[in-house]
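Hey, resending since the last one bounced:
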Amino acid sequence: MNTRVDNRGRLGGLRWYVPLLLVPIPVLIFLGMRVQGAPDVGSIPPADGSCSATEVAHRAVFLLDLRKPVDDAYASLPGRLLDDVTIDLYADTELAVYSVSPYAEAPRTLLGRLCKPYDNGELLVQAAKDQRNGIGDCGDLPAQIPASSRADARHFCEQRNVLRRRIDALVAQSKEKTATDAYLVEALEETTREFADSSVSTSLYLFSDMMQHAKWYSHVDVQPDEWDFNAFVAARAAQGPIAEPLARPSADLPVKVFYVSRAGSTDNPQLRLRHQGFWQSYFEDADLQFAEQPTMAGFASKALMSIPTPAELAAYEREQLRYQSELVLRERAELERMRLEFEQEQAQFAALREQFGQEQRRLADEQRELAAQRREFEARNQQAREARSAVGAADQGA
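The structure tokens again:
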């Protein structure tokens, strides 16, 4: 237990005792009602502690799936996991915290951003030889750390506390409700696209029971013995041409899943192994780690998925085969058209080449004829000159 925190709590009560006596009774009643009721997420401002563009050395995302209820006994678990995640981060890491939203088109809701400005080593206190070295955290910052590190840590802790209050409020709103949807895959794909645009290294943390619940695929509606990744891929493809290609995390992406088992399903070791195997196929070559969390109760849900019968699946496969056959026929017809067009162009070129050859031969014949005529003219001209010279010589002799 942190005695400094306890002392501050007792002193805090003494400091506020007298001023509270001056507050009007109706106001105290209103404040009491606010304390007893769950805080509204919208009433808590988002944590805006993002790093500047030049400071970011690493980006991380913590995705919280709270579309299904969290047991009262573990209501503080998501917030405590936020603390664990931040301790795990390097210096100059920007952490974006999202919750899975109820909208497939915008499947994530930003709860806030944090920038961790210090390295854990800066808060590491060298203890005595018979004690362990400890890393201080919010509420327990060692007195020996430098003033600059203390200031950075305090500001970071303030932002983290704001973010944790938003998470706690969101958890409170999720209690005892029917699960109407959980667009987990859609939120993961949006995160994948965000990481693809990052110029620095990335990592992903996820708190979830990993139950996708959408019209096109639902772990809730499908029987556990049918949790098959290939069926999942086929269901995605069956959405038609409007469905985007499945965006899967990049190779070697560090992914840590704080995995929540559900009573009546994944609390069964064999079903949990099958379920986690499904997600191992999804994350493919990512550096995936499951961190087991306490088992929580099952939940009521609204059925979303129209599960196809074997006959419907066979009809879909036949339709896909017909579509592929039509594509092949169209490609063949296009290749035949291109072949005929090419042959026509070749024939036209051959005809033009023949015309050019004929024209060349005609011009050559004309050139030879002109050359013969020129030689004949030159010979006659030479004879005329010689005749004139002979006449001139005869006249001179007379």
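Confidence is low (pLDDT under 50) at residues 1-37, 127-133.

Sorry for the duplicate.
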